[in-house]
Automatic annotation (TrEMBL):
Protein's name according to its UniProt entry: Ribose transport system permease protein RbsC
Transmembrane segments: 26-44, 56-75, 81-101, 113-132, 186-207, 237-254, 291-309
Nuclease is among the record's keywords: no
Subcellular location: Cell membrane
Any GO CC annotation of this UniProt entry: plasma membrane
Alphabetical UniProt keywords: Cell inner membrane, Cell membrane, Membrane, Transmembrane, Transmembrane helix, Transport
InterPro entries linked: ABC_transp_permease
Membrane topology: Multi-pass membrane protein
Molecular-function GO term, any one: transmembrane transporter activity
Native species: Tritonibacter horizontis
Length: 353
């Protein structure tokens, strides 16, 4: 009888520890938020909350796309460069239009520019998918290559210069371009409202659709997924295309907010996206991760970055702290897997008895 009580107590302790580990990102967000609320001046002001939310939204878009990629067993290092290239494409179309030859130049309204920019992001994502699925290039190498190609193309589009004064032109219907970065929907900044839509869509795909189940299956065991009839290549195409789509949205939003486009925009954004996904519980080995966890992870990164800036912490120390947070997240993730395996084994042993 005493042994049964001890076993039950041990199981309860492990189960409680597992719950805490699964909720680690949310707990970390609360702790970070409270710390900066107490130590950073004006951290809780309405203006700062709005600005911080906009910063978080940019990373969250990329992190959502990155989550699908990592869950499928891949990695996408090109998203930051796609952000920069898409911003430059938007700037070029706004300022110069598209030369179609014979002295004719085609100009576009805001909606058409957005669609063309998104098409660029999607095409780069499709190229990543092609390299990985058809040419069997490792995801790390394939996306590293497109990182350089996209960044180079962004530089070439303006010889490394900035496209300034992206206010649009009323004559062509592009004067509303600034609204993308500064407009509101029902009192909510458009970028945040768009994040809610994209986040809900991604969460629905991941949790409620056969495609979502296929993504997890491919990341968990690609060979077994293929043998079970899942279209592995098609699934991989989707995750890289979706990642490119999310990066294109960020490129549009940033160029609209700044009313300018610079080819270096998005530099190292891919690292923050990976960090947010890992903090949110996405396993770098694939097969595990949740969209809501990733969004919370993006908030942790955003609150940490803005809070450290408001406290006057050196940018060098900020980089060190972010690195330590990422390492801690991976270590805790490994601990969660061990505890979870222990709980499963004990539950199985109890059933066998």
């Amino acid at each position: 009888m005493a042994e049964q009580n001890t076993a039950a107590s041990s199981f309860s302790s492990s189960d409680a520890l597992l719950i805490l580990l699964k909720a680690r990102t949310f707990i970390a967000l609360i702790l970070v938020f409270v710390f900066f609320a107490l130590n950073a001046p004006n951290f809780m002001s309405t203006a700062n909350m709005v600005i911080m939310s906009k910063h978080v939204a940019l990373n969250a878009f990329l992190a959502i796309g990155m989550t699908f990629v990592i869950v499928s067993g891949g990695i996408d290092l090109s998203v930051g460069s796609i952000v920069g290239l898409c911003g430059m494409v938007a700037g070029y179309l706004l300022l110069n239009g598209l030369d179609i030859g014979l002295g004719w130049t085609m100009h576009f309204n805001t909606v058409e520019i957005c669609l063309l920019v998104i098409l660029v992001g999607v095409l780069i994502g499709a190229i990543n998918g092609f390299l990985i699925t058809q040419l069997n290039v490792a995801p790390f190498i394939a996306t590293l290559g497109t990182l350089y190609v996209a960044r180079g193309a962004a530089m070439l589009s303006s010889d490394g210069r900035t496209f300034p004064n992206l206010n649009g032109n009323a004559e062509y219907g592009s004067e509303t371009f600034r609204w993308i970065g500064t407009g509101h929907v029902l009192g909510i900044p458009f970028s945040i409202a768009l994040l809610i839509v994209v986040g809900c869509l991604a969460g629905y795909i991941a949790a409620r659709t056969p495609l979502g189940r296929h993504i997890y299956a491919v990341g968990g065991n690609e060979r077994a997924a293929g043998l079970s009839g899942i279209k592995v290549n098609r699934t991989k195409y989707f995750v890289y295309i979706f990642s490119g789509f999310c990066a294109a949205l960020v490129g549009l939003i940033i160029s609209s907010q700044l009313v300018a486009a610079h080819p270096a925009t998005g530099d190292t954004f891919e690292l923050n996206a990976i960090a947010a996904a890992v903090l949110g519980g996405t396993s770098m080995s694939g097969g595990r991760g949740r969209i809501i966890g990733t969004i919370i992870g993006a908030f942790v990164i955003g609150v940490l970055s803005d809070g450290l800036v408001m406290m006057g912490v050196s940018s060098f120390w900020q980089t060190v702290i972010k690195g330590l947070v990422i390492i801690a997240a991976v270590v805790i993730d490994q601990a969660q897997q061990k505890v979870q395996a222990r709980v499963v084994l004990r539950a199985q042993a109890a059933l066998d008895k």
